[in-house]
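Sequence decides. Our protein:
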Amino acid sequence: MMSKKLRILEVNKAYFPHTGGIETLVKQYSEELGRIGGVSVRTLVCRDERGGTVRETVGGVKLIRAGSMGTFSSCPLSLSFIRLFRKMAKKADVVHIHVPFPLADAALLLSGFKGRVVVSWHSDIVKQKKLMLLYKPFMNYLLKRADCIVTATEGHVRGSDYLPEYSGKCRVVPYGITPDDYLNISREPFLTEKCTDKNSVKVFFTGRLVYYKGVDVLLKAFRHVDNCELFIAGTGVLEDGLKEYAKEHGMENIVHFLGFLPDEQLKQAYADCDVFVLPSVVKSEAFGIVQLEAMVYGKPVINTSLPSGVPYVSLHGKTGLTVRAGDEDELAAALQILADDAELREKYGKAAAERVLAEFNEKDVIRRLYGVLADKGE
């Protein structure tokens, strides 16, 4: 007799084409889990904009975007989400909730769902203190109710203000990438052709230009680094100020602002750089998938010692260097060390590529995630 399908309900705030790291992961999980034999996946999210509920199939995923009345502190306001959660949970064996997403916590509380609950904890709420006052009772309920809490690294647990007391039910399932998606591209000298000095060491950053990314610290550090050129891909509220700073300090010829890069050009930039840097200063940077995207090309990474998953991705002294968050002098010193030592860059880069293949391959990640959702143990 055939065993019945494992019915999984994936729950998140938003879904593709919404841009965001968690949204990319939820799309990945929904699609890949749905391809496993004996698994049925449905996904519930909220609409990005005001409007009624939308039912559709995206990339083979049965998706419902609950109607929304707008947002409060970046959280959707949706009564239909609560109703749909209750209805869909009744037909699920396991509900997989991606947090922070306060509305999902409330929906679970009100649903009466008795099945297995798995929470993927992507980060603490760091900046929105007022929201935490309202959210904390729901969050505590969710953490107590959860059968398992999934984090991408041990650092997510150790650096959290809330998870250590629940460490007994935490399981590490890292984020992953598909190496072939990166390695099977046309290699172009995308950054080299933009260099003022073609012999300079090319340092690359990509991300939103917002406070917690630490690009201001990176620019301050770069004033003290020789024989390097910096390439910054991304846009954000700090963009104009960062450009002005570079201009004021005479760095127009060595700091290149690339703006938003399409996927193919972004991958070419990773492949063409010599060093990747992630100078984030606040644990809102919980993992940094961009590290994996650079590492798969064999690039050494400079990251920061945040109380999050960031320093658990690229390891200090093995795949790159880790410096204190916000310390421009340490960052400058690390940049100069790698700029001056091509053999060290090659050594760290080789180890970085090997680490991605061994620890962060998407196929292995999905297998581990399925084991958690299905409660199959280690």
Observations:
- The mean pLDDT is 93.
